[in-house]
Amino acid sequence: MLDCRAAMKRMAQYVGGYMKRTGIYAIGLLFLLSAGLLDTVQARQEGGDDSSKTDAGIRRLISVVDPERISKHLFYLAKDPLPYRKLNLTLPGHEKNTLYEADDYLAGKLEVWGYRVEREGVKVQAFRRDTSKPKHAQYSAPKPEDPWYTAYNLYAERRGRSHPERIIVVLAHKDSQSWIDSPGANDNAIGTAGVLEMARVLAEYNSESTIRFLFCNEEHTPWTSKTAAQKAKSRGDNIVAIFNMDGIGAKTPEETAAGKKTNVTAYTKPEGKHLAELMAKVNTQYSIGLEQRTAKRPRPGDDDGSFVLAGYPAAVINIGSLPYGDPNYHAEGDIPETCDIENAAMTVQATLAAVVTLDRDL
């Protein structure tokens, strides 16, 4: 840059000397300064135009997030026709267990929108139940002789056009609790429906980076997000951000009664703090209306934690409350009627805005 400026200065001196000798020094100098000023103004205008286009594009994308679609996915996955999503339950007269049926539903939607869905099998077991524990914590380790199942991670991608090697992951665990007959609506059919809606909205978006949607499993053991994260690391995937959608819009009964629309973006490592701050920024910039809060976790947890432990520190979870305030957590009462779908849709909008902003800024 310094060499370039020096060369420009020498050229200006040369041209200025020549123009002075020919009697038109002042006019020539004015011409040079005007040309430089015009270039600067034009560059600033072009930069401003790009920023305005990006802002308008994000507003358009978040405007088409559809709470009704989220609701339909939620009730399909957590009530009718699928009351649960677990490997150790097959409905009477059905050939597939309820988790496989959920997989087929998700894959079918993604394929209709033009995605190619990849399934990654992981060997897991159902948790046992220990009724001596508090209701929310009654899961217990399976015995070695308990049945093994194959659970599937589902992947769908929008490949980046200029930097396909750069990957932004948006994920949700799609299974319900394997040790109890809970519909798992807030935990986590709502997050699954939210990620599915993001995939729909971004199906025609021309991203610069690759946007990878991952539907994994956390209510069986081991968590299949661990396999997803470890395999990504072994492949050398350049994952620059992970957004985990889990329990979005879920909060205390008091917050629900007060009509609050909440979201907590929690991070573990310093690299995740930027993503949490970005969530707050877009919530304000696009007037989404969430009561947005940032929290730092003392250690990796949930499916975003699987990626942190695998060496991807830029990871966050979006969750309705922290500490988690849903009184039906891991219980039979976690039904779709208790979900705040409007709140969940607002969280989807904010996450969508953050992902697209990050894609453009990178």
List key phrases describing it:
single chain; 362 residues; alpha/beta; Aminopeptidase; 9-stranded mixed β-sheet; two-stranded antiparallel ribbon; 11 strands; 46% helix; disordered N terminus
Structure description:
The protein has 362 residues and is α/β, with parallel strands linked by helices. It folds into two domains: 2-47, no CATH class; 64-361, Aminopeptidase (3-Layer(aba) Sandwich), CATH 3.40.630.10. Helices cover 46% and strands 19% of the residues. The strands form two sheets. A nine-stranded mixed β-sheet has the order 7-1-4-6-5-8-11-9-10, with helices on both faces. Strands 2-3 form a two-stranded antiparallel sheet. Helix 5 (185-201) links the parallel strand 5 (163-173) and strand 6. The radius of gyration is 26 Å and the shape is globular. The protein starts with a helix and ends with a helix.
